[in-house]
Amino acid sequence: MKITAAVLHDMGKPAPYADSHPLAIEELELDSPGPGEVLVKIHAAGLCHSDLSVINGDRPRPMPMALGHEAAGEVEEVGEWVTDLNPGDHVVMVFVPSCGHCLPCMEGRPALCEPGAVSNGAGTLFSGENRLKLDGKPVNHHIGVSAFAEYAVVSRNSLVKIDHSLPMEIAALFGCAVLTGVGAVINTASVKPGTSVAVVGLGGVGLNAVLGAVLAGASRIIAIDVLDEKLELARQLGATDSINAKDPDCVEQVKSMTKGGVDYGFEMVGSPQAMDVAYRMTRRGGTTVTAGLSHPDHMFSVQHVNLVAEERTVKGSYVGSCVPLRDVPRYISLYQQGRLPIDSLVGERIGFGDLNAAFDRLASGRVVRQILVPA
Asked: Which residues pair with 282 in a beta bridge?
């Protein structure tokens, strides 16, 4: 079938993207789903910093590539072997397909699925196949999803079935922002009630980390960003304190407020400098978690003796260390109970024609989640 999709042909084009147009809106040929695959009509796709990181070259991927990874839609057709989904079902897409059989999957860590990592890095579906073509030549899939499109063929292993009552534009956020931000707090860090938390970087993932800290019962939640409007939104979502990261005394303020530093520091920017801030404001014996994805050449260093003598813990968090089939329904239930108020994170709805300019707005940091509505 013929579909409209946003294709990145070359990484690293200069901003502003409204002028350089890194994303080309193309008519692609989409093959029918193969065994274990599903054709999904995309109803909503969130614009995430991980997409921007491919556009600007921070996350190298094979080109050309149809972008988009945070999405929700409706099942149109199922391939052979798919017996638990039917046309009309609503689904959230998860950008790491999990096999269930490799060692990480068997340990309950499907975000680290080894075959899933291989297929994502190669730009294929989980099967190793490619279902997208432009003028007869293959177009790579973005981490198994390629959701900036009217339709997508994805692995069954990349889908979580959801209730029809959930609005699609809300559902899309559960595929990345909610899983990553809330999961980093609940799963990776295992934040305890009554403890203190600092969140450095208040994009979609960082604000979900604030919501996760509220859910976990943290007694003090310190929001840190360079934009005052983001700090205000974080306070509305439950942050008890906020500090502008431009303040040269930011770290010392946090240490003073918490009598030595927070129990848990979260870096949600994808920057070694932000990671250094999060680490330095974490107390002796505390845990610093990062879910930010920086360029592969970027390094973060710590004082070895400090790490040992203060018994520090530094942890990475990918997809919020989540088990999507378990956590997506849990987080949706919390949203439906009013305990995970992500509605305020959903921003402007856009069409294909505004995608490039929308990534300029995302790069500025002044928006949270813009939603592509293909139809």
From this structure: 262
The predicted pLDDT at position 375 comes to 76
- Sort strands 132-134 and 23-30 into parallel, antiparallel or unpaired: antiparallel
Residue positions counted in the chain: 375
User: CA–CA separation, 145 vs 330, rounded Å?
Assistant: 22
Which stretches of the chain drop beneath a pLDDT of 50?
none
The number of C-alpha atoms within 13 Å of 62 and in the hemisphere containing its C-beta is 14
Position 97 scores a pLDDT of 96
Matching residue, tokens 């990776």: 188
Report helix angle 204-216 to 228-237, nearest 10.
30
pLDDT score at 247: 95
Beta-sheet strand order (sheet of 137-138): 137-138, 132-134, 23-30, 2-8, 65-66, 140-141
C-alpha distances (whole Å) from 142 to each of 45, 113, 268, 330, 368 are 13, 16, 21, 26, 21
Q: Give the model's pLDDT for residue 340.
A: 97
Whether 331 and 178 have beta carbons less than 8 Å apart is answered as yes
| Whole-number Å distance between alpha carbons of 205 and 69 | 14
In 156-299, the DSSP E strands lie at 159-162, 196-200, 220-225, 241-244, 262-267, 282-290
- DSSP one-letter code for 352: G
Q: What are the structural domains of the chain?
A: 2-175+341-372 (3.90.180.10), 179-318 (3.40.50.720)
Q: What is the pTM of this model?
A: 0.97
Residue with tokens 């614009």: 47
